[in-house]
Amino acid sequence: MNILEEYRDKRAALNEKVINNSDKVIKRIYSLDTITYTEGALDEKTKEMIGLTTSLVLRCDDCVKYHLEKCVELGYSKMQIVEGMGVANVVGGTIVIPHLRRAMEYLDALFEEKENQE
Q1: CA neighbor of 36 nearest in space, from 20, 50, 47
Q2: How many other β-carbons are positioned within 10 Å of the β-carbon of residue 8?
Q3: Distance (Å, rounded) from C-alpha 100 to C-alpha 57?
């Protein structure tokens, strides 16, 4: 199993587990998270880049992978994503570097998958 499949499968299984065992608070947080990234004064694409950069600063690898997937899906080029991650690295400092390394590995896998689908 490659890193993309591993992440996607595990995330789906764990999300199902959380939802099936949640109260209203957790379900509402999940709903709020989904609503946050919908079109508004800012477009969905911009919100996903914000999600990616803030996730890097917060050092949430799972969140970074999710937002990388969405950024690629919404049409960002690899260099646009890398530039956004550069901003996150400056804001977050050198502590972000290990997360940036893992993000680059995942980003490469996403673009490799994209090339194979074309």
Answers
A1: 47
A2: 15
A3: 10
User: Has residue 1 got a pLDDT over 80?
Assistant: no
Give the mean model confidence (pLDDT) for residues 48-53.
Answer: 98
- Nearest CA among 92, 11, 110, 81 for reference residue 54: 92
Contact by Cβ (8 Å): 73, 44 = no
Instruction: Report the distance separating Cα 38 and Cα 103, nearest Å.
Output: 24
Task: Please calculate the CA angle 15-92-47 and round it to the nearest 5 degrees.
Answer: 50
Whether the model pTM is above 0.85: yes
> Each residue of 13-34: pLDDT tens digit?
999 999 999 999 999 999 999 9
Instruction: Answer for the pair 51, 39: CB distance below 8 angstroms, yes or no.
Output: no
Distances (CA, A) of 55 to 33, 85, 102, 118: 13, 10, 13, 29
DSSP letter for each residue of 72-101? HHTT--HHHHHHHHHHHHHHH-GGGHHHHH
Angle (CA) 62-53-80 rounded to 5° is 110
3 state DSSP class of 41: coil
